[in-house]
From TrEMBL:
EC number in record: 2.7.13.3
Catalysed reactions, as listed in the record: ATP + protein L-histidine = ADP + protein N-phospho-L-histidine
NCBIfam families: sensory_box (TIGR00229)
Listed GO MF terms: protein histidine kinase activity
Organism lineage string: Archaea, Methanobacteriati, Methanobacteriota, Methanomada group, Methanobacteria
Protein's UniProt name: histidine kinase
Species of the source: Methanobacterium subterraneum
Taxonomic superkingdom: Archaea
Length: 456
């Protein structure tokens, strides 16, 4: 066993020029059993020096050192052999203080909710606290002391060993460990290397079970990815703008609706330019209402093409209840709106034509209710056109029941065949009418005119 000068002096050896060879397991100074050391990896010892037993190690020409209360230290196994660290035992007062201090730090160690451990570079646990045993689901600390932390993640432990040989300390290391029961946990650890002659001999670590936070973080990340994907793939134009209309965020559909070929270009645009009158109006409404649904507006894209949009808008307010942003969802409704306007225009033209002719014309739905009455028909029937709308033909004019008019009207409705017939006036006698009935899937239309003399 080799020893430095300080160790020789502590052990009372006064022949430093020619120090004796000391067998670690057979000497009167350091009590050590090889079986115990091999089994535990490290042992602590205390011993009272007996100078009569170590006289062979002293120089007879020198005065032996004063008798101390003893020596104490630790012995641990390292790759090159054994490491012995010794120091003089404290006085009674010092020992008492040390005992109190040691008890305090022992309590810190035992009560710490962080898993504290000391292990060999190979991962064998030399010391650990109850929290360490709990984190890795050992039934007790004694079982944890029989474990090897490298087995929880062999590749990661090997990497940590390599890092500690150069870095000395590792902070906030995150990794996944598989406990002995097979369950995987996420841990965050701080590690410190313990060295002897620049060789890593032990690893001191502090482990925190971070599984719940990590799972919540990953769930949040998955959720963010999901909603970001929905945002990007949504056919509705989604955007966030400030109250002045500057675009802060938008999806590809928004850029496409307003004629931009990239989102990046759309983000440099101001949506108020699409309709300088509507945007201030919407902002004013949002300040008082908070949200607007189904707002319809004609707007112009960045290339000045006219589009019709339907938008849902939500105001975003700060703590002072001031509107700071507008979140919107825009749908390009141009095709439907153009078709609607075309249909309305056609209906207006038809209504104008039917209203201008000097013959009677009415339309009935499949339930025999009036849905259109032109001015000439209203005059003939001697009733206001608006008063007839929605009324039932047979209830409003029961005198038509059993007449030739009913026969042809019902035949047109039921058999979907056009009917032409001549008959006396429907409600007035004396004048003969020329009547045409046109069926459709929605009902029937009845057209009549006075029979002319040239037709007689």
């Amino acid at each position: 066993m080799d020893a430095n000068q300080s160790a020789l002096e502590i052990m009372g050896i006064t022949t430093p020029e020619n120090p004796p060879k000391i067998n670690l397991f057979h000497n009167p100074i350091i009590p050590c059993k090889k079986e115990e050391l091999v089994g535990n990896g490290v042992i602590n010892f205390q011993n009272q020096l007996d100078f009569e037993k170590i006289s062979d190690f002293q120089d007879i020409n020198k005065t032996p050192p004063p008798i101390t209360e003893g020596i104490e230290g630790t012995i641990s196994i390292i790759s090159s052999g054994y490491l012995v660290q010794i120091h003089q035992s404290k006085s009674k007062d010092e020992s008492c203080e040390l005992l109190i201090s040691g008890e305090k730090y022992k309590n810190f160690f035992e009560d710490d909710i962080t898993g504290d451990f000391i292990a060999t570079p190979q991962g064998e646990i030399i010391e650990c606290n109850p929290a360490f045993a709990e984190i890795y689901n050992f039934p007790n600390r004694e079982q944890a002391l029989k474990s090897n932390i490298s087995t929880f993640n062999p590749e990661d432990w090997e990497t940590l060993n390599k890092r500690l040989k150069h870095e000395y300390k590792i902070k906030g290391h995150q990794t996944t460990h598989q406990r002995p029961d097979g369950e995987k946990i996420h841990v965050v650890s701080n590690l410190v290397g313990i060295y002897h002659d620049s060789e890593l001999v032990q690893v001191k670590g502090y482990v925190f079970d971070d599984t719940e936070r990590k799972e919540a973080e990953e769930a949040l990340k998955r959720s963010e990815e999901k909603y970001h994907r929905l945002f990007d793939e949504d056919l509705t134009g989604d955007f966030i703008a400030n109250v002045d209309g500057e675009i802060l965020e938008c999806n590809p559909a928004f850029a496409d609706i307003y004629g931009w070929d990239t989102v990046e270009k759309a983000l440099k645009w101001n949506i108020s330019e699409s309709n300088p009158f509507d945007w201030p109006y919407m902002v004013t409404r949002l300040r008082s209402e908070g949200k607007i649904r189904g707002f319809q507006s004609w707007q112009r894209r960045q290339d000045f093409m006219r589009i019709h949009v339907v938008a849902n808008l939500v105001g975003i307010f700060n703590d002072s209840d001031e509107l700071i942003q507008v979140k919107g969802y825009v749908f390009d409704d141009t095709e439907r709106k153009q078709a609607e306007e075309k249909l309305e225009s056609g209906q207006r033209r038809l209504t104008m034509i039917l209203g201008s002719i000097r013959d009677g014309f009415v339309s009935l739905d499949n339930f025999w209710n009036f849905i259109y009455v032109n001015p000439c028909a209203a005059e003939y029937l001697d009733i206001d056109a608006d008063d007839l709308m929605g009324q039932n033909l047979w209830e409003r004019f029961p005198e038509l029941a059993g007449t030739i008019h009913e026969t042809h009207f019902r035949r047109a409705m039921n058999e979907q065949e056009i009917q032409y017939f001549e008959a006396p006036g429907m409600l007035r006698t004396g004048k003969c009418l020329d009547i045409s009935v046109y069926p459709s899937t929605e009902g029937i239309s009845i057209y009549w005119r006075n029979k002319r003399r040239s037709d007689l």
